[in-house]
């Protein structure tokens, strides 16, 4: 931590706050116990009082897993995570529904498929594919802005009767910016006015060169309505996934990304997460954003309770202390105490940031008046 209040420092040193204020005064600083001092001043004070200094590093009080890589030999193949994008009414929702319908592993008899923000299907050749069920470019860009690159493959849906539209172009730009490979799904090919060839040609103008035009972007003609071409699309996804050689280490504490979260009346805070590595287990202690928690239940998209969830699996998690934000990282830690400690540190840091911002805003306001 870069700054600490005088009182907090006094508490840590087991000294009186007033004595620290006095010492600061003799050092030429007029501060109250509630004011913060910087790290250098704090160190001077600590020395003054004859204590030993142990600078607490960020890694002792917070966790950043982004840099810690798993050794190559621990990695195992994992299913691809797919996001569907495209212009409004071109058939994103219809395609998500149709793809879900191809799942060969049906839920328990009477089990109701539920919308949890993502789902996973098992294809005829026993491959698993995870689909993010939160279409909308905002979700994609917002997650990315928060450093959560969960999507491996983007399916760009273009209605063959409508062609390239503004949100199609937007989707192309987002996908390119993210550096994620794209598969073009030319939808509504059951319609008499469908013109898939025109779609392919118009895509050239946006530097999307599909295979049929001698490029390397896979394109599939289909109809979400009749189901024609869905097999081809699934094949295309599996092929693309193979090229990407997607891997993660399953036998370790889990990391996951929050896809969506809300406060459920009966169940409390609920988050849909996508496991990025490791295996999430019931009873695990974790930190997610500024919240801590302990996994009380893991529920899949078919409403079934699971004991654990591995890489690329989307699941609902119960047992959170509060509602996290989409894009937050969930990290399993060794103990409840550690989870609380990290969450508390992050909350403090978030508060600090807010207070630190206030004077700046005031200055701006003042300058604008002047
Ligand atoms: P979204 O806004 O991209 O999610 O589009 P929707 O999935 O809601 O579809 C918009 C409309 O197009 C709905 O009326 C669908 O029934 C219709 N639609 C979607 N796919 C097809 C298709 O393959 N063929 C036909 N004829 N209609 C479709
Ligand atoms: Mg829709």
UniProtKB/TrEMBL annotation:
Protein function: One of the essential components for the initiation of protein synthesis. Protects formylmethionyl-tRNA from spontaneous hydrolysis and promotes its binding to the 30S ribosomal subunits. Also involved in the hydrolysis of GTP during the formation of the 70S ribosomal complex.
Q: Which residues of the full protein are shown?
A: 265 to 634 of 840
Upper lineage is:
Bacteria, Pseudomonadati, Pseudomonadota, Alphaproteobacteria, Sphingomonadales
Name the gene behind this protein.
infB
Protein family: Belongs to the TRAFAC class translation factor GTPase superfamily. Classic translation factor GTPase family. IF-2 subfamily.
Q: What is this protein called?
A: Translation initiation factor IF-2
Coiled-coil segments: none
Q: Which residues form the Tr-type G domain?
A: 77-247
Detail which positions bind GTP: 86-93, 133-137, 187-190
Localization, per the record, is: Cytoplasm
Which spans are transmembrane here?
A: none
């Amino acid at each position: 931590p870069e700054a600490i209040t005088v009182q907090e420092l006094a508490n840590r040193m087991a000294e009186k706050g007033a004595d620290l204020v006095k010492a600061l005064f003799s050092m030429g600083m007029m501060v109250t116990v509630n004011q913060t001092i910087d790290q250098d001043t704090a160190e001077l004070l600590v020395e003054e009082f004859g204590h030993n200094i142990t600078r607490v590093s960020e890694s002792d009080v917070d966790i950043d897993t982004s840099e810690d890589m798993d050794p190559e030999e621990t990695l195992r193949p994992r299913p691809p995570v797919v996001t569907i994008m495209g212009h409004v009414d071109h058939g994103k929702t219809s395609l998500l529904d149709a793809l879900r319908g191809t799942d060969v592993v049906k839920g328990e008899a009477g089990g109701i498929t539920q919308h949890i923000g993502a789902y996973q299907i098992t294809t005829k050749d026993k491959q698993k594919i995870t689909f993010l069920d939160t279409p909308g470019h905002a979700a994609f860009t917002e997650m990315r802005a928060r450093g959560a690159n969960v999507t491996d493959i983007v399916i760009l849906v273009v209605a063959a009767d409508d062609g390239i539209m503004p949100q199609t172009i937007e989707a192309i730009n987002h996908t390119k910016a993210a550096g994620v490979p794209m598969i073009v799904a030319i939808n509504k090919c059951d319609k008499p006015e469908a013109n898939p060839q025109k779609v392919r040609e118009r895509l050239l103008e946006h530097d999307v060169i599909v295979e049929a035009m001698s490029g390397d972007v896979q394109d599939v003609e289909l109809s979400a309505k009749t189901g024609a071409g869905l097999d081809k699309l699934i094949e295309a996804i599996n092929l693309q996934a193979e090229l990407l050689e997607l891997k993660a280490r399953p036998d370790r504490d889990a990391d996951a990304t929050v896809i969506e979260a809300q406060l459920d009346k009966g169940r409390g805070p609920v988050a849909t997460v996508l496991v990025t590595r490791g295996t999430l287990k019931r009873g695990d202690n974790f930190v997610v954003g500024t919240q801590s928690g302990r996994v009380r239940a893991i529920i899949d998209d078919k409403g079934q309770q699971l004991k654990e969830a591995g890489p690329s699996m989307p699941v609902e998690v119960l047992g959170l202390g509060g509602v996290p934000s989409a894009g937050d990282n969930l990290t399993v830690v060794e103990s409840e105490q550690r989870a609380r400690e990290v969450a508390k540190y992050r909350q403090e840091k978030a508060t600090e940031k807010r207070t630190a911002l206030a004077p700046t805003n005031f200055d701006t306001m003042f300058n604008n008046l002047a």
